[in-house]
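Q: Start with the shorter request: fold the first protein.
A: Done. Sequence, then structure:
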Amino acid sequence: MGGCSGCQYKGMSTAVEETFVGVRFSEETNLTLCGTGGIRFGYGDEVIVDGEEGPVYGRVEKSPMPVFKPCQKSSALKILRGANENDQAARERQKKNEFLAKRFCRERSRELRIEMKVSKVVFPLHKGQAMFYFTADGRVDFRQLVRDLSDRFSTRVRMIQVGSRDEAALLGGIGVCGRTLCCSTWLTEFEPISIQMAKRQNLSLNPSKISGQCGRLLCCLAYEDDQYKQRSEERPSRVS
């Protein structure tokens, strides 16, 4: 059976395979597609996945997970093994450190009078650096804060400033449509969104109805904007 037409994976199999499962990491709302390498993992199994920043602790919540597109199969993360007692203990330490570090960072930033909002803290499961995601109106001098965090938790610290849309993608949630936020599931790039897009679609210009959790205009306003542009260009002009 052929793959998707017009892409680099054309000709690859689109058959549903049982070697893919859906894994949930931490409190994320969406499931991540992971390859099992031929090993059977069932619902509720705790696993260690090879993530971008190192091993990640997760829980299988869909097994198997139907996947048809070859591009999705090729980008699936790899399950390294089932979680053992050491991994479980490391996960408990990780959760505790993330909770304490987020609270400490907020308190210390106030004491240092740093205008910033701590969005999310991610500690490594075993070894690596802790990442602190934050939002701020401008550039922030957090050198003293980094030293304090590093001393307090005995780890390397990396501060990452993100925008409001990136913050929504990090935290996840449910949109006004009732579905999981696009930015936290599949949307990887943000397009410029304008109020003209809402006007072309005859939508209400009430900010509460056309804005997302990030406070910016909804990303989905751009999904069909090209069609609305084309229709407006093809529509005959009114004769006065």
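Q: Next, the second protein, separately.
A: Sequence, then structure:
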Amino acid sequence: MRITVRELADRVRGKVLGLASQTVDGVSSLENPKSGTVVWVDSEKNLGRALGGTAGAVILAESLTDRIPSSSKSDGMPKALILVRNPRLAFAQAVALFHPRPAICKGINPTAQIAPTVRLGANVAVGAHVVIDDGAFIGRRCEIGAGTFVGAGVTLGEECRIFPGVMLYHDVTLGARCVVHAGAVIGSDGFGFVPHEGRYEKFPQVGTVVIGDDVEIGANTTIDRGALDATRIGRGTKIDNLVQIAHNVEIGEDVVIAAQTGISGGTVIEDHCVIGGQVGMGDHARVKRGAVVGSKGGILPGKIIREGQVVWGIPAIPLDEYKVINALWRGLPKLKADVDALKAAKAPTSEPKKVRKPSSRHGSRPSGSRKR
């Protein structure tokens, strides 16, 4: 695919400096630029490298306009520039343009087992050895990869992309344009048990999972169904690989959760929060709108993270406080050495000899005398 820089700028809502009629046919990295492709830059530090490289066009931040050499702004320059507000977003759109996503599958594979009561929308694709159980509804233009199981009563909104090997338990609901990567399990039982006479009795998990539109769920992530009500994931939320979300968790809109995070039952994460990798959350915690939990953060059960707050550490505390404590912690070896030196300086060079005092009870007697 080859298009002009003007056409590309129109797609990414940018302004062209230089030869708008110049053509490009792909994208490349700033570290390995290729002739006739597009690169991007968002900092002055890399501007000279981008302008001097072999790429045919550069997407860059509007804020760098004053840093562009005047010779690079003329129509006769060999490299075209596309000025945008968010170069990373514009470059992502360019990548999607030159590399359209491949289909997971096409048509209905003859090995798929689809129950007679399943309702399929228009142009649904179902891969090899897929099982779709009674009463499921699959929205139009959905793609369901090989080896996936779709349980009874499951609902998929339109244009969902379900990669191979996904397990969707009964009565789970996904909104439109959701992406679920390979190996994810949605709707498995929550970890609910009642201790009784030294044993554990299972608390039946009869709730469900409800996922909003435009949610992406990473490979091998697990989302448990609610015990009685629903586990909920809000619109636009993005969940990385290997995340565990327990029963009755509620996650708001446009939340980002990185890999290996574990979220205990009943926890609430409000809109626009960022959860780093390997975060652990105790049950019934609440992370309020716009808060950030740093990687490996530990949230105690019932803990409330305030709106917009940035926390770090185990247990998680405000970032400024964490930085101070971390600096002090790193200084402990020197502190110990200083204390040891002070103790050694104050210690006496030799201990005085102990003199045995005569007994105050009997007084002193000459050796060999006898009491009469």
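Q: Describe the second briefly.
A: The mean pLDDT is 91. The longest helix spans residues 332-346.
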